[in-house]
Write a structure and sequence with these properties.
alpha/beta, TIM Barrel, Rossmann fold, Immunoglobulin-like, 3 domains, 6-stranded mixed sheet, 25 strands, about 30% helix, hydrolase, GH, Cellulose_Degrad_GH3
Length: about 775
């Protein structure tokens, strides 16, 4: 059995193993059919594996992957009473692994797969800010470091693959999953993808080299590293009308300029998850050009492609049978299923000649390659963590706090912030002021007791210990009925206070009374939720009586600081006009309360900048910043066409000035760029204020010339720097072929004739000519 020899290359081991496998064993390897939380039951001492789990292992003569063994949330119905504590997770992982290996004829281990969109969706886990807030940080280093912390946490529990949302763009914020996007910009998302992959995986895969022609020892996976599965591929945020899984009608140029760079940024990931949507009528799950040609052949991707939950079952009406759908998906490059029944029929499909044996073997080869690369054949079990789980949890809190702080964007400040702790009466009001789960976003597990009291209200009360801080709910998120008493109490409190901190926004919080589809998307409407998977809205207006509450409070003539806890931008023009300060805090995670309080007190200087444009009204959409510069009247008859706050906007407690944007090699030619050389730039940034601050320096380009209408601007670089008062910092950028090209009428990328480079108010123009 050569596949057990660690001195052989991964390819040699896989080929040997694959040659010995039966059809049933192969089909088992491409199936991820079970809901993992149903694989065990708590017993008087520890836990026991269920017949549900054992029967499926017997059916597949092994198991390809098991999703959500540790998932805990209202959909799974797993909580602190019936779930596995974080510190015991490694034991359950080993029990599952041991059973699968010992009931597989060839001893093939199983991949354990977990959700990690903003931290692990399991008991006792760390919940970070959701992506829409993290995008505001513009901090690649912090994104990578927190990804490394997530990987370490999951590895301690015995997890092998983490599902991370990072390929979606929010081009229509009515979409419920906007909170899972880093924002609207592909360059920003691609840069963060690189950071995510590096943080989770290190250097396990390099698209320039074939990992299967290395040994497992050559790969050198460290125990604290694991594979990351980036989702969703692709264009899911472009659904018509902001609908989840909606039709995506984009042309070739839009796809290649906006989404192809995202595919390239995922080239070193261990896995990619396909998206529910279609692209111009072709379902992503049967899009062979997307996965086999663009992703693998052109880009050099080597990992697996996973289906989204029950997505393959949606193909039956198109192709006529589950077997035919399975054949189409395998041929397109879907290597692993998720919960569907479609891939259970692969064996029957081969007998019917509607599934190709070669396509199945290719998928199994990829699955086994990943298992070998991760070291599962040589070291399948997880060792007891050397550091206690809680100790590791608290050691990560500092970076989680920093992530929350840098995710917040100051939209307005008329001198009221930072607040002084001088014995005043401060009213903290609003539906999101004292509700921890409203701070956490979708895909969130039940929280531990020591986290539940870290709300915005309790944190403000602690931070302003010399002041009289009191709370009133004011109203619900969306409920219209029985709100009068709430509002009356809030107004009464505000009348007796010196300042008002009003915490409005939305919520993705689920509860255990809700109903869900088979893929985990909520199917029943929670009265006080307005965001998350399958929660799309027609209007971006704040829900319920929130605006009425604001109007009542604004008439009191007291200083108002409005905080927005939310998973998407809302219509806030009226609020911004009447508030003295406005902060977009998004879903700031477990550390959101303390981070908000420190920002209000001036301990934290806000450094976030919007990664998504704020529309004045839903009727303006789309308002993303890189639309084409076509000759039209952008204003409406009844409304300006411009966004209320554009991408990249954000204020600070200090001031920054930009000086001396310099092109260091202005004589660079087109041929130089084609040959791989880069345009080198430098800008000087000065802190002209009184306090230390962090500044996200954003570089935009405007391409001119060529045969197509170019875009208004394109983000092509960003760096975050910390600068002390009266100090300067030189920030460098490098622009290459990818940053200065567009998709031409000839079907490839071509450099523009002229480039305008913009950083804040500074501009430089360079002609690339035809040389």
């Amino acid at each position: 059995m050569s596949y057990k020899n660690p001195d052989l290359t991964i390819h040699e081991r896989v080929e040997d193993l694959l040659s010995q496998m039966t059809l049933e064993e192969k089909v088992g390897q491409v199936n991820q059919h079970l809901y993992g939380w149903k694989a065990y039951e708590k017993a008087h001492t520890g836990f026991q594996l269920t017949d549900y789990f054992k029967e499926h292992v017997h059916w597949g003569q092994g198991m390809g992957a098991l999703y959500g063994l540790f998932r805990a949330d209202p959909w799974s119905k797993v909580n602190h009473l019936n779930g596995i504590p974080a510190e015991e997770s490694w034991k359950l992982a080993n029990e599952v692994q041991d059973y699968v290996i010992n009931h597989s004829r060839l001893g093939i281990p199983v991949l354990l797969v977990e959700e990690c969109p903003h931290g692990h969706q399991g008991l006792g886990s760390i919940s970070y800010p959701t992506n829409i807030g993290r995008g505001n940080s513009f901090n690649k280093e912090l994104i990578e470091e927190t990804a490394r912390h997530m990987a370490e946490e999951l590895a301690m529990k015995g997890v092998h693959l983490a599902l991370v949302s990072s390929l979606d763009l929010s081009r229509d914020p009515r979409w419920g999953r906007t909170e899972e996007c880093y924002g609207e910009d592909p360059y920003l998302a691609a840069a963060f993808n690189h950071a995510i992959v590096n943080g989770f995986q290190g250097n396990m895969i390099n698209a320039q080299h074939s990992f299967v022609h290395q040994t497992v020892a050559d790969i050198g996976r460290k125990p604290e590293q694991l594979g990351v599965v980036l989702k969703h591929c692709i264009a899911q945020g472009d659904g018509l009308g902001g609908h989840n899984s909606g039709a995506v009608n984009i042309g070739e140029r839009e796809f290649m300029e906006i989404y192809y760079p995202l595919l390239k940024s995922a080239k070193n990931a261990v896995g990619i998850m396909a998206a529910y949507n279609d692209i111009d009528g072709v379902p992503c799950h049967t899009n062979q050009r997307l996965f086999e040609e663009l992703l693998r052949k052109d880009i050099g991707y080597q990992g697996i492609v996973m289906a989204d939950g029950t997505a393959l079952d949606r193909l039956k009406p198109i192709y006529g049978s589950d077997e035919k759908a399975a054949g189409k998906a395998l041929q397109a490059g879907i290597d692993l299923s998720l919960w569907d029944n479609t891939y259970l029929t692969i064996g029957a499909g081969i007998k019917q000649a509607v599934v190709q044996q070669a396509a199945l073997d290719r998928a199994v080869y990829r699955m086994l390659s990943i298992k070998f690369m991760l070291g599962l054949f040589d070291r399948p079990y997880t060792e007891k963590p050397e550091i206690a789980y809680k100790e590791r949890f608290y050691s990560y809190r500092k970076r989680n706090h920093q992530m929350a702080a840098e995710s917040m964007t100051l939209l307005k400040n008329e001198g009221v912030l930072p607040l002084q702790d001088i014995g005043e009466k401060i009213a903290v009001i609003g539906p999101n002021a004292h509700a921890l789960y409203n701070q956490l976003g979708d895909y969130t597990a039940p929280q531990d007791e020591d986290v539940l009291d870290r709300t915005i209200f309790t944190s403000i009360k602690q931070a302003f210990s010399h002041s009289d801080v009191a709370y009133a709910q004011g109203c619900d998120i969306r409920a219209e009925e029985n709100q009068v008493t709430h509002m009356e109490k809030a107004v009464e409190l505000a009348e007796k206070s010196d300042k008002i901190i009003l915490v409005l926004g939305g919520s993705s919080a689920r509860n255990f009374d809700m109903e869900f589809f088979a893929n985990g998307a909520v199917s029943s409407k929670g009265v006080n939720m307005d965001s998350g998977e399958n929660v799309d809205v027609a209007s971006l207006a704040l829900g319920g009586k929130q605006l009425a509450l604001f109007d009542c409070l604004s008439k009191l003539g007291k200083p108002i600081v409005t905080l927005l806890i939310q998973g998407r931008p809302h219509e806030i023009e009226a609020i911004c006009q009447k508030s003295d300060a406005v902060v977009a805090a998004w879903y700031p995670g477990q550390e959101g309360g303390p981070a908000v309080a420190q920002l209000l007190a001036g301990v934290v200087n806000p450094s976030g900048k919007l990664s998504i444009s704020y529309p004045r009204s839903s009727g303006q959409l789309p308002v993303y910043h890189y639309q084409r510069a076509i000759a039209m009247n952008e204003n409406y008859y009844d409304l300006p066409g411009s966004a209320l706050y554009s991408f990249g906007y954000g204020k600070s407690f200090t001031l920054f000035s930009y000086e001396k944007l310099t092109i260091l090699n202005p004589h660079l030619t087109k041929q130089d760029l084609i040959d791989g050389k880069k345009l080198q730039l430098e800008v000087t940034v000065k802190n002209t204020g009184q306090v230390v601050g962090k500044e996200a320096v954003l570089l935009f380009v405007k391409l001119e010339g060529g045969e197509v209408i170019q875009r208004k601007q394109l983000l092509r670089g960003f760096e975050k720097v910390q600068i002390a008062p009266n100090q300067t910092e030189k920030v460098s950028f490098a622009l290459g072929f990818d940053e200065l090209s567009y998709f031409s009428n000839q079907g490839d990328f071509e450099l523009s004739e002229q480039v305008i480079i913009k950083i804040e108010e500074l501009e430089q123009s360079i002609s690339l000519g035809n040389s």
